[in-house]
Write a sequence for this structure.
């Protein structure tokens, strides 16, 4: 009977718990059809949002073709100083030179590319530690003869605290050990 109760509770907890991942980036997939929630900077004449081949997923993606300098977008994210965050985004370069791309979080370099080759969309991901209650996520592009395509920007807090599901599994393991010890004693 005891095993059935523990097993039943374990199943209920596993069914009701999930990872809490709050997306910090607004309009990271540019699905609004614009750069809403982002601030543009630099020579933005040849920057915009479009569908078709520009989009990595969904219906829209960003394109950047700055000439005579750098252009890009940034967004202020609400963070907790000292906390770790995971970022990811997709980038497609057309192989034109000279070109460069950089991603920073409060000035800390996340990714830096000079004359990246021509290729399909590539996933970039990693982690950073927030320095303050607000972190500026900035992407800068320069591609004189062509364009960068950019999509699916995401930032989430890395969960350092055990998930409820992990605690349930630990509890079930301890209960199984207790039952096994109880049987040996009897």
């Amino acid at each position: 009977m005891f095993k059935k109760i523990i097993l039943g509770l374990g199943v209920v907890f596993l069914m009701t718990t999930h990872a809490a991942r709050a997306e910090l980036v607004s309009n990271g997939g540019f699905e609004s059809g614009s750069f809403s929630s982002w601030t543009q900077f630099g020579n933005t004449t040849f920057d915009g949002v479009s569908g078709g081949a520009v989009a990595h997923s969904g219906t829209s993606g960003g394109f950047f073709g700055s000439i005579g300098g750098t252009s890009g977008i940034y967004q202020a994210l609400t963070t907790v100083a000292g906390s770790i965050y995971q970022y990811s985004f997709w980038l497609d370069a057309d192989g034109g030179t000279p070109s460069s791309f950089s991603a920073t979080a409060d000035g800390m370099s996340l990714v830096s590319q000079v004359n990246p080759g021509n290729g399909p969309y590539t996933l970039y991901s990693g982690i950073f530690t927030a320095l303050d209650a607000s972190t500026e996520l900035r992407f800068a592009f320069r591609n004189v003869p062509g364009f960068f395509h950019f999509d699916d920007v995401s930032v989430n807090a890395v969960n350092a605290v055990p998930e409820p599901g992990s605690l349930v599994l630990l509890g079930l393991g301890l209960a199984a050990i207790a039952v096994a010890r109880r049987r040996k004693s009897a």
The longest helix spans residues 164-185. Residues 15-19 have pLDDT under 50 and may be disordered.
